[in-house]
Amino acid sequence: MAKPTKANTPITEHLAYLLAQANREINRQLELRLSKEGVPVEQWRILKVLSDGNGHSMGELADAVLLNHPTLTKMIDRMVSDTLVYRVQDPNDRRKVLMFISDRGKVLSKKLNSLAVDQEEHILESYGDKSTSELKRLLESLIDSSN
Amino acid sequence: MAKPTKANTPITEHLAYLLAQANREINRQLELRLSKEGVPVEQWRILKVLSDGNGHSMGELADAVLLNHPTLTKMIDRMVSDTLVYRVQDPNDRRKVLMFISDRGKVLSKKLNSLAVDQEEHILESYGDKSTSELKRLLESLIDSSN
DNA sequence: TTGAAAATATTGAATATTCAACGATTGAAG
DNA sequence: CTTCAATCGTTGAATATTCAATATTTTCAA
Known about the structure:
Arc Repressor Mutant, subunit A; 6 helices
């Protein structure tokens, strides 16, 4: 008698795969827009986080922009060369470095933001207002439940 | 008079960011489980796709496992060395290569699948049955609307 | 106060990914 | 038929990321 082979879940039904696929696609679109300014998505994130004008340590920043430390250090090196951001030693804890956005960085950040907003609006149009906010809500809650 | 500064959307409210964050977290968890067998997530995907026993061309496979062509070629090279998969020239179109899973690959694939299913169950527990299926539905629809 | 442990950021070597170019094969127009 | 463009997969060089080790500073217990 033939072994009753239970049909294996196709990969397209795994949450991990759906997230990877959606992320890849949305990221690709954003990348395309930001490439108008020649800036990778990660630099947009960095500039956006620093836009509050406060100093942020490297560790804090790495968490916020979803990059691990060595990668961030090297990306920041480039951004310092481009005078988009600058380092200041934290006076309260000299192990730390505080990152600040420069005036040039602020100007670029504004341009990037409007490109990113463009994309969000484009998604809203094709995907719908309701779906978008519901998806955001569910993603936030998934992230919460994973900590 | 002070310039009326409209508060900038925080990065945590962008869909692109939420997707990246959720993907990173879920992927990290899956990676952790699969590391028990010393296999990266991408190889699990490849083995899973090839598990149907059919031959899949490199291009088809690259799309399915979310890898670009050169990266896939090099990963397949490693998997061929490990005798998990093998190449066959497509007799109908000699530009193409058909990939097949080996017996060893099938054995490994089964182990990996149960690790992946473990994870899905863990998510279901902490995140809830309803939320999970709703999230999957929304992700599928987002992906659809992006094509 | 001292000394060991933890936290922070960076570095260099090893590894992986990407970009552009290539060779081989097929398709299709003239 | 012949030729030219398109498709498919791979390669090598350039680039980026990661891992492990390091230097510095702080924390905290003895």
